[in-house]
Amino acid sequence: MDIQECFPVLKTTTVAIVFCLATATGAAAQQAPSSCTAVPGITTQGQVYNLPHDVPLGTFNSTNNNGVQSNVSNFGVTVQLPSGTTVTYPNFTFSLLGETAHESDTGPSTPAMTVLNCGAGPVPAMGILATSAGGQGGGGHDEFLDAHDGAQGGNGGAVIVENVAGGILGSLSSPGVVAGFGIIATSEGGNGGEGGSSTVASGGNGGMGGNGGSVIVANAGTILTSMSHAPGMTGESIGGQAGPGGDGTPLDWAHAGSGGTGGNSGADVTGVNSGLIATLGNDSSAISVHSVGGNGGAGGSESGLFFALGGTGGRGGNGGTISAGNSGTLVTSGNNSKGISALSIGGGGGDGGAAVAFGPVVSVAIGGGGGGGGYGANVTVANSGTIQTSGTTSYGVRAQSVGGGGGDGGSATVVAATLGADVPVASISVGIGGSGGGGGGSGTVTVINSGVIVTGPGTVLSPDQDPSLTLPGDLSAGIMAQSIGGGGGLGGNAYSVSATADPDGSVSVAVGLGGSGGSGGNGSDVSVTNIGSITTGGREAPGMLVQSVGGGGGGGGNVVSVAAAAGSFALSAPVGVGGSGGTGGDGGNVSVAQDGSITTLADHHQEGAAEGCDRQMGVVHDAGIF
């Protein structure tokens, strides 16, 4: 199966793409600057930049249109070659940045952007950085009465960056003269505004985070980087963080504001390579395509006379769908440098707000519930080319869908105290911790390898190697595919104190109930097919590691209850019940189709084993509830 068959036509509000780059041959390669075009099949909207001629060296343009700052720059990087001559390499930055909105106004959304590197030009470009980021929503206005809600963050626009056939990012001819990064394309939603606080009434709710837009990165040419933290090609869609809820008033009819919902990450993130990408430094994966939901906002806190209710935490945003394909060559040399890193991650739920109540006779405090975690979406990776990694923790392919963790429940603190004179008195305090939010579920993960994957040195290591040393290729599976549900949030703690005193008699009751832990999210199905070749050379480096894991349930909240009574007749009754733990999530189905070859070269050291080694496993797969 070729890469084109693995990905259908993707459609969003801003772009339509026929995913045919794997079979494109020379389209747009080395055309005249005036006619440089995208690979056939891709339709774009928004401003289009053709490199290098559209942005000559020394360019810096900045404009502002309806709250969106547009920046285009090419300052260039001057280096001295071994021959003694100096060359200035283009270094392109494109950014569309929404400004922070005024109070209670929605953050401005940013438009789509497409950047094409159409050839090497007189000298190769150092790198391309393209960002479309929505503006932050305005905060809610503080009020004497009910406060205003925070506003939603703006959405990021779609971003497409291509290094077309014949394009070069970095230099192949001059050692050390290479890109600090190849391509980084990011679409970010703006953060939500925080809810306003009130003097005598309710706090405002936090604003929702903006959504990240779809991102497409493609390379049909050559990308080479040498520094650490210098990825070859990265595409990211990131949801905005939701704003926190505003604080409430001490009056008993009011409440704190709830946290806003985190922004979804975006519809799709797609990365495809049919050329060459090589990185030399640590933390420099060849292809990284990530989609991350925004975190939910925290609930506001409240201190109340007689009664207090903490705000509810906002739900985390969902991760977007991930598609990655390689029909070319990917090479990494540093540690923690994957061939392909494909991740969809749900945002974490916001924590519930704390509640504090105080007063005579009866007082009640209830902590806010934690927000649920966002969902990880489906992840698909196809390799029909060659992937070679050499460092530690450098998987050939890492494909993961991860649900966001639930937010913790808010704590409850309550004090009731009564002092009598001539009649018996009583006081009752009730504190209830907020429930933890449930963990988000994860999406399906599918990996198909019909090409060649090699991790580690490619030679058999001696069994006499010191096991305390980290060696090239250690902890570097050929394929790691996981679907992991998010963990449930912790239940909120409860602290309840009741005190009475009267010569004629008193009764004091303190009740504390810990919040229940949130349930773990479920893992989804994972499928890996190998009809190609996989070779690993390091220790703890299976050919394939395939797992579906349910998220752990959150722990229940703790309780402290204290009751004290004084008088001729005194009765004190402290009651405390800890919160129940949340249930764990279920793992999904795991399937492995192995019709190719898997070779593991290293010996696996076992601490305490007589001979100190064991043959490494080719395939590890399980489905379980953790």
Q: What does this protein look like?
A:
By secondary structure, the chain is mainly β. 1% of the residues lie in helices and 39% in strands. The radius of gyration is 29 Å and the shape is globular.
Helix and strand arrangement:
Layout: H1 3-6, E1 10-11, E2 16-17, E3 42-43, E4 47-51, E5 59-65, E6 68-74, E7 77-80, E8 86-89, E9 92-98, E10 113-117, E11 128-133, E12 159-163, E13 168-169, E14 183-188, E15 215-219, E16 222-225, E17 233-238, E18 268-273, E19 276-279, E20 287-292, E21 302-305, E22 307-309, E23 321-326, E24 329-332, E25 340-345, E26 355-359, E27 362-366, E28 379-383, E29 386-389, E30 397-402, E31 412-419, E32 425-432, E33 445-449, E34 452-455, E35 479-484, E36 494-501, E37 506-513, E38 526-530, E39 533-536, E40 544-550, E41 559-566, E42 570-577, E43 590-594, E44 597-600, E45 603-604, E46 614-615, E47 619-625
Parallel strand pairs: 4-10, 9-11, 10-12, 11-14, 12-15, 13-16, 14-17, 15-18, 16-19, 17-20, 18-23, 19-24, 20-25, 21-26, 22-27, 23-28, 24-29, 25-30, 26-31, 27-32, 28-33, 29-34, 30-35, 31-36, 32-37, 33-38, 34-39, 35-40, 36-41, 37-42, 38-43, 39-44, 40-47
Antiparallel strand pairs: 1-2, 2-3, 5-6, 6-9, 7-8, 45-46
